[in-house]
Recover the amino acids of this structure.
């Protein structure tokens, strides 16, 4: 009987999760032929057919479905072991994989990272700016800095503070539309990837009949379009309040607010570099949200 190789199971899981060799290769960071070779080698070694090769992709056989259940259990165990090992790291060195939004990295988070690096030069960052939430449980990221109404299930961390969204336009746009009510102006709206964000939900609740000039998948892109005079945008107060190119409008957005969280997995919370970073960022973000530190835009 041949012993199972965990790395082989990773290839099987990737194809099962993504549905094709090409998608699995992208997820694993390897080429198409490597995935194909590893799966064929596994099937030959263990004399089992894991996938049916079909024109519409790779489909699990009955034997493959049974194997997949076990592979997922092994995967969870490996992730848990990795987190527990990482959580015992007492050194203020190594890599922190950070996931946040482009808006936060261009503003609040980006302002604080240089100061942290000055204090702890042996810690480096791998930053991912995406509107989707990377999985900390799967070790896709170590720390998430995210706007959210409450702490995400299965994670621990600190709420840095609260912030509001306000309606902004440029002085030039307002001068060109002096007698137009705010609700009748051109609006810049969050796109589909931001549909569940606070501004996305607010737009659906209150501005369903608004004249939309453009949709964007980035709050920073909306801010840029507002500065360029395309219309009105709903922006975080920390983006607009010290930006001389933006004019805050007298418009009711009281129900557009959010909390800002710094989060990690419980297994990682005791790692020195993780809890030190979370404490530093939560305290610094709290000051910036309160306006006790000047906000400077880096993007």
């Amino acid at each position: 009987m041949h012993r199972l190789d965990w790395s082989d199971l990773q290839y099987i899981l990737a194809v099962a999760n993504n549905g094709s060799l090409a998608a699995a290769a992208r997820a694993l960071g390897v080429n198409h032929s490597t995935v194909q070779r590893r799966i064929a080698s596994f099937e030959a070694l263990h004399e089992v057919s894991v996938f049916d090769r079909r024109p519409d992709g790779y489909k699990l056989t009955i034997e493959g479905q049974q194997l997949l259940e076990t592979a997922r259990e092994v995967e969870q165990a490996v992730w848990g072991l990795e987190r527990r090992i990482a959580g015992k790291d007492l050194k203020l060195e190594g890599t922190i994989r950070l996931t946040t939004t482009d808006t936060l990295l261009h503003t609040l988070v980006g302002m604080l990272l240089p100061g942290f690096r000055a204090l702890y030069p042996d810690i480096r960052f791998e930053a991912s700016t995406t509107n989707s939430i990377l999985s900390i449980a799967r070790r896709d990221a170590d720390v998430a800095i995210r706007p959210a109404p409450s702490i995400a299930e299965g994670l621990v961390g600190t709420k840095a503070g609260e912030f509001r969204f306000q309606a902004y336009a440029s002085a030039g746009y307002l001068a060109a539309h002096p007698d137009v009510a705010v609700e009748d102006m051109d609006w810049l709206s969050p796109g589909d990837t931001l549909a569940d964000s606070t501004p996305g939900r607010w737009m659906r609740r209150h501005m369903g009949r608004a004249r939309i000039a453009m949709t964007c998948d980035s709050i920073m892109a909306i801010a840029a379009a507002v500065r360029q005079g395309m219309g009105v945008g709903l922006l975080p107060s920390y983006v607009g309040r010290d930006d001389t190119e933006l004019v805050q409008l007298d418009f009711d957005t009281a129900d557009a607010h959010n909390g800002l969280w710094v989060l990690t997995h419980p297994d990682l919370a005791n790692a020195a570099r993780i809890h030190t970073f979370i404490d530093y960022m939560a305290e610094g973000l709290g000051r910036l949200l309160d306006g006790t530190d000047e906000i400077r835009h880096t993007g």
Q: What stands out?
A: The CA atoms of residues 53 and 59 lie 7 Å apart. Residues 93-299 form a domain with the D-Maltodextrin-Binding Protein; domain 2 fold (CATH 3.40.190.290).
